[in-house]
Structure formats: C-alpha cells, structure tokens
Amino acid sequence: MSDDHVYLSLAEGHEDDTRWAYGTGFEDPLHGVDTTVPEGVDAASLAADCVALADDALVSAQRLAEWTTRAPELEEEVALANIGLDLLGQARLLYARAGQVDGTGRGEDAYAYFRGADDFRNVRLAELPGGDFAFSVVRLLVLSSWRLAHFEELSSHPDPVLAAVAAKGVKELTYHRQYAAEWVVRLGDGTDESHRRTRRAMERIAPYFGELFTAYDVRDEVVAVLRQVTEAAGLPMPVYRPLPGTGRAGEHTEHLAPLLAELQSVARAHPGATW
C-alpha cells in the first residue's frame, strides 16, 4: 500500500481537512457552550481527566517544539510546529476546564508552569526524548492514533465543554495521524538506513504501549491503525513488552523533570509577569 493510500484510508470518515493550528482558527469551540457541570457528572473525576489529557498534550507539544530549527526540511519544521500548537491549544482549554470544576479556580498557567513532575499525569511515552526524526514521527503516529480514538468517544461526553473540546480536537488529530503515517511509510519503505531507524523507533516505543491501553480502552482502534501503517511501510508490528507503572499515577521517567524545568523556567523566574 502506498503512503497516499494510507493517507486516504486514514482520512476516511474525516472529510473536513482542517490543518489550522488550534490557536489560529476563527471559531471558538466553546462559543455558546454551557459551562455548568451536568447533573450526574463527578466534578473531581472530570477535572482529573481534563488535567491528564492536558498534560499529555502539553508535554507532547514541548517535545515537538524541540524540532524547531532542527527538522529535516523547513516544511516539516512548520508542520511539526503547527501540530504542537494544536496540542498546546487543546491543553489550554482542558486546563481551563479543570480549573472551573475542581473548585480551585486555577488558570491554565498554574497547571502548566507551577506544578512539579510528580504532579503531572501524562503518559510516559510523551516525555521520552526524541533526537531522531524517525522516533518522533513513530511516537506521533502512536499518540495521535490513541488520542484520536479517545477524543472520538469523548465528543459525546455528558460534559458539554469536554465534548466540545474533543470534537474540535478530532479534526486536528486526524491530520496529526495522517501526517505521521505518511512519514512512517516513507521512512520504513525508504532506504536501508531509514528503515533501520524506523524499526528501532518501533522497538523503543513498544514497552510504553501497555500504559496507553490501560488508560483508555481503545486498543483495537490503535492496533488496527498501526497494523495498516506497518504493513505499508514493510515494518513488523511491535512486540508489546509492558513496563510497570504509569504516568497517570505520577510515575515518570527521569526525562520529565528536565523537560519541565525548561518549559517552566521563565514563568517561575518572573511569576505574575505580563507582556
């Protein structure tokens, strides 16, 4: 299967080819949405879910930002930056919702900049250092496939705010997944060196799959996408060797703390500062 066929197949059912960064669109996804927590929805659980999803997005966006000035081509640098902005926009809305419903009234900056690594609830795959383009696009394929499947479910969540954020995110994540799939096929079916690096990236990521499937029951959807892409790329499906622990419980790798230190340095050095 060519990468064009993979692209078209994965785009099926998502005809709206939205590629704008989250913060640059002209429609407010929450315009007219009732922010009252619906009866029967546990506010504490809702806030925790929003924070976890926001942490995934924020940490992923920070890793993607590391490709600025380092991507193989200028076009890919712009694409990765825009994907990062999409995720950053999702994080902002989810943090804002958490602050509305958890009783603290905290703003998005408080969640992003003034919590330590132990308080973050992102999955560990998001925090692993990249360094290799093949690893970054394979990780993007896995995380975007996983997040897209979950956001499709959340688009009918009883909380109208979370449902609206998820519905908007589905359009963006569809493109993220397509972009990553194209690159995985191109690299896997490319030179011997690009194939070797992509295969190694799959092997490096495989131990972290179990944590994703534990967090949300979307294993079948994600595995179907990975099987389709790996077959087109001439790559073997990764063998799952789950690691103990989970970032959802604050159990992280040694890579998260330095990543957050860089992310939070300016805000902590100048708390309360404005432009």
Automatic annotation (TrEMBL):
Gene Ontology terms, MF aspect: phenylacetyl-CoA 1,2-epoxidase activity
Pfam families in alphabetical order: PaaA_PaaC
Stored InterPro entries: Aromatic_CoA_ox/epox, Ferritin-like, Ferritin-like_SF, PaaA_PaaC, PaaC
Enzymatic class: oxidoreductase
Positions in coiled-coil regions: none
EC number: 1.14.13.149
UniProt entry keywords in alphabetical sequence: Oxidoreductase
Keyword Mitochondrion recorded: no
Record flagged with keyword Isomerase: no
NCBIfam families, per the entry: PA_CoA_Oxy3
Protein name as catalogued: Phenylacetate-CoA oxygenase subunit PaaC
